[in-house]
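Entry:
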Amino acid sequence: MCRTLAAFPTTCLERAKEFKTRLGIFLHKSELGSGTGSVGKFEWDSKHSKEGRNFSEDVLGWRESFDLLLSSKNGVAAFHAFLKTEFSEENLEFWLACEEFKKLRSATKLASRAHRIFEEFICSEAPKEVNIDHETRELTRTNLQTPTAMCFGVAQGKTRMLMEEDSYPRFLRSPAYRDLAAQAAAASASPSEPSHT
């Protein structure tokens, strides 16, 4: 297992696999490429009509607010897939790592996980370095001296704001999301199974 994945707790990796599997039921990412320069698109899978209704409502809700997107397991998975096409998934991965970190109750686990998160996302030349200013980086470094559940709060807030103001609007404008939303809207409007496009 690569060093980066080994840093994640087993439950996080299991949840990621579950998200990937669950999202795969509803979405199929086409191959990158094609002469049109598209970066792929998601397609509706009509084999799962029982879950399709809730999923279509979920998909349409993602455009209502960034909070709704982040509160949806499928939304996070779709947003992550989009960010990977832009080679900018580190902010979301950092935000998710911070959300998991806040759930820790053991002081020992808190300290060791805080240092792993810092090394992976915050320190200069980190493998998945997030785009934060020097002051935030140094404040976070200082917070690590006595780690608490909120020691990444400022850095997490800044990366969230960056995603909401930059990546999220691009995600909503992406052909992948627009196609998926159109299919979800059609499924919500029709009383029968979702249409297969």
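Residues 124 and 134 are 10 Å apart (CA to CA).
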